[in-house]
Amino acid sequence: MSGTVAGVEARLPIRSDLDLVWVRQHVRQAAAALGFGLVDQTKLVTAASELARNTLVYGGGGEMAAEHVCDGRAQGLRLTFRDQGPGIADPERALSDGYTSGGGLGLGLGGARRLVHEFSLDSTPGVGTTVAVTSWAARPPRQREEPR
Amino acid sequence: MPEHETAAEHTTPASDVGKFLHRRREQIAQRWADEPLFRTVFTVSRDEAVEAGRVVVDALAQVAESGRVADTDAAGFTAVREQLTRMVASRARFGLTSGQVSTEVDGLRPPAVNLLVGDLHEATPEHLRECTTLLTVLMGTLRLVVLETSLSEGQALIDRQHLELLEAATPVIRLWDGIVAVPLIGTLDSARSQVVMETLLESVVDQQARFAILDITGVPMVDSLVAQHLMKTVAAVRLMGAECVVSGIRPAIAQTIVHLGLDLGTVVTRASLADALGYALNRLGADIVLATPGGAGPR
Ligand SMILES: Nc1ncnc2c1ncn2[C@@H]1O[C@H](COP(=O)(O)OP(=O)(O)O)[C@@H](O)[C@H]1O
Ligand SMILES: [Mg+2]
Questions:
Q1: Taking the domain B173-283, which CATH number applies?
Q2: What pLDDT, on the 0 to 100 scale, is given for residue B42?
Q3: Residues B66-76 pLDDT 10s
Q4: Is residue A144 part of a domain?
Q5: A113 in B contact zone (CB under 8 Å)
Q6: Helix B46-66 and helix B75-93, axial crossing angle in degrees, nearest 10
């Protein structure tokens, strides 16, 4: 289900370091618009930063799509990172903490998975990689029973 | 010119303009030396202005002979690009916009075209028209080449300002004898973190600091790359014989760091810059005398 909160839905290119800045900016603003608290915003922005950098560095560039998702009264933000890069031959290993093929800390994928509510990694060697994450805003306090 | 008559079928307006530029090289350069563009750039001696003019005429002649008068990438321009860049930079320092410089380049056209018209007074009106049009196009291309160099000058200026901004955004503050601090603001991208590290290490040396405080209160997010940069900086400070304290990790960031799986175990952290200063002073063995109300403060 798609919602109607302004400034959430977007497709952003990931081609340069500067694009990473826009990705973080957009995720922060979209999460705030959907009622995410500061801690949840920061977690999602950090996960997005990790995944977008992987898209850029390992996937050779790609894009992020942001979508508003609803489940009953819960508001969620789904972020999908796509690239047509070399893909990941061994996703288990890539997700394990400390594994890096590029001199990083090897915490990006595993850390991003821990920072969000739903995480899926879909990669085909030679075709590309898609990582989708979804987080849900904690119920806004004003959702108490309203006087009828 | 009888030679002109017999060879008429083999000459093109382009080769005629090329020959004209060779023949009139000196006169054109002399006239250009009095135009604002050359006069104001080469202020030391008029000879320099004339010499610079000759180089431009030679380039134009080469371009005309190659027949690529409308092509800013014509090989002939290669030899003058650097000189043009310097001239543009000089005019820009004078406060001229690229549009104004472009107008000054356009001022070089009339003297050249007038000389050409004078030389061709015996030619057919058609040939005269073709040659002047061609020279006009060629001068327009020169104008574009100059505009291109002024745009890349502008880009270089932006790059320089960007770098200066990076440096300005990382002021190292001397908090106490032997204690320096950097309040970091914004996201620590790779360029920023490099500058932070260098600036901090320099001041550790300059100030003979024993403690360096990295305050990240103004940093909105710490992902694994930012953390890696922070840890490298901490390690480098240690190699300089000083101790590094990271302060101002906000609650939201602290929770994120834990989920991310980052281990800042060996990094000394304090909640605030004040706490970090307190820690460093303590380690330095300084006596902290609390100021009494209305008192004179520490010491
Ligand atoms: N989009 C991608 N395309 C190809 N390989 C990837 C991609 N994302 C991650 N990887 C692989 O997974 C490894 C682990 O990624 P990550 O956990 O982010 O650690 P790091 O970025 O520090 O290397 C990377 O080193 C890389 O080999
Ligand atoms: Mg990574």
A1: 3.30.750.24
A2: 86
A3: 999 999 999 99
A4: no
A5: no
A6: 140
User: Do B187 and A24 lie within an 8 Å CB cutoff?
Assistant: yes
User: Could you confirm whether domain B2-156 is CATH 3.40.50.1100?
Assistant: no
Whether A112 is in the pocket of ligand 1, judged by its Cβ within 6 Å, is no
Give yes or no for B295 touching A (CB within 8 A): no
- Domain extent listing, chain B: 2-156, 173-283
pTM of the model: 0.64
Whether pLDDT at B139 is above 60 = yes
**Does residue A60 sit within a domain?**
yes
With an 8 Å Cβ cutoff, are A43 and B224 in contact? no
Which residue, among B258, B220, B214, B256, has the nearest Cα to B236 in the 3D structure?
B214
Report pLDDT digits (tens) over B186-202: 777 666 777 888 889 99
Q: Which of B225, B253, B259 sits opposite A53 (nearest CB)?
A: B225
What residue has token string 């060779």?
B22
Lowest mean pLDDT among A93-102, B46-55, B92-101, B164-173: B164-173
